[in-house]
Structure formats: C-alpha cells, structure tokens
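Hi there, hope your week has been kind to you so far. Please have a think about how the structure follows from the sequence. I've dropped the whole record in just underneath, so have a look:

_____
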Amino acid sequence: MECVFAAKDLGFDAVEAVDFINFDCPLEEREAKALELKEAADRCGLKISSLAVGADFLNGCGGDTAQEIQRVKGWVEIAALLGAPRMRHDITQGYSRDSGKYQSYECLLPTLATAVREVADYAATRGVVTMTENHGFFSQDSQRVEALYNAVGHTNFGLLCDMGNFLCADEDPAQAVARVAPYTRYVHAKDFIYKPFYSENPGEGSFRTRGGNFLRGTIIGQGNVPVKQCLHLLKAAGFDGTIAVEFEGLEPALDGLRIGLNNLKQYWSEV
C-alpha cells in the first residue's frame, strides 16, 4: 500500500497491480485484497490502470490447458473488482527442450490463440480488455506477438507494448515498436543498459538476452532503449492511452521512478 501513496506523491496518475506482489495471499483472500487496494487508490485519487498476471497455457495447472484458462478467468474477476480496464497475462514459456514436446512458436500458435480467445471473450463480459506483453523470451519478439494478435482475432484482445523488453530477444526496440504499435492498448516504458556478448560481463544486476548479450535495468532516458523514438512511433500510430513506468534498475527505486516519470513526460510532450 505504501507504493500507492508514494505514486501519488511522485505525481503519477495511476498504479498497476501485479499478481505476485499485491496478491501474495491465499485464494480466498484475493477479493478482500483487491477491494483494499482499490480503496487506497481511490483515496489517493489514482486509477488502477491494469492488472498483470502470470499464465502459461501449455504448462500451467500441470499442463491442463482448460484448467489454466479457468484460473486466468478468475483473475479477470479480480481485475473487475479493482476497476482496472485492462488485464495483461502471459502466454507460455514454451515446452522445455528436454521435454520431448518442444515445438516452435508457429506450431503452437493455434493452441495458444484458442486459449487466449476464450479468456478475451469472457473478459469482455466483465468490461476488462485482455492483453499479452512481449515478455518471457518465448513470446517476446514483435513478429511473434503480432502473429498471436492476428491469430486470436478478438476485438477484446490487444498487445501490451514493453519498449525495453524487445532487447531481451535481441530485437531493435524502435523497429519492434513500429510493428506492434497499431495493436497496442497499453505501454510499459522501460530502459536498459546494453552490452554485447564479447564485452566484459557487467556482473551482479545484469542478465543475458536470448542471444547472450547483457542487459541491466536503468532509469528511463539513461540507457540504450530509444525511448523518445518509441514514443514517437506509438503516437504516430494513434496511441494516446496509459503509459506505465517499469523500473528494474539498481538505482534507489523512488529516485528511478521520479526521474523516469519526469523524463517520460518530457519526451511525450516533445514528440
């Protein structure tokens, strides 16, 4: 709850809820937690812009896709209680390479699209738009999430464009954002410091991309993600929705959020 009050003090207009952070509680306590969070946001004059939840329509619920779909539908109910107009869910991490079931994203697309469509259809009855994010390595490239969007083909389903996450799949963020901007319903603004594979390992706080390069989260505007160019591309495509600051840096969190928000507002005004 302290994050809600800090967001108000920093000048944010909204906060985003996350399953494993805001709902680290038994299942029977989720509804009460949702109402508590909404009350805190209302008291601060903040909207809850979205709910982010984990999901895996191949491996979740012990590999029972129908059961995983029902579990994700349960989160739709929580999003509705929060008054969140959107809910972002994962798609899958894919089958492990040693499982004997490994297949390409393209081969799995019909199965994944059917599951996503069912959740989107249900969420439409609750007034919640569903989205997936370019996230988690397997479903991260702009071409893959674009293909999923087209395969789902539901008016209540769109994309959450995380401009930084494309680097995790070694994709140029500007080119990727240009591809997905027409389908984007919500945005995560994020920045990374990038170092190629052959450079020195930056050590603690960094991680490797799918191609073996190095990334470390940092304050928006202080890394290698072309944030302003990405904003230009989104605005040019007609996007005028909510943009959330996602900070993954080693810098003090409140400083990272404050500076990042100020930079983000400045860049948006300039494009």
The mean pLDDT is 97. The radius of gyration is 18 Å. DSSP finds ten helices and ten strands in the chain. The longest strand covers residues 47-53.
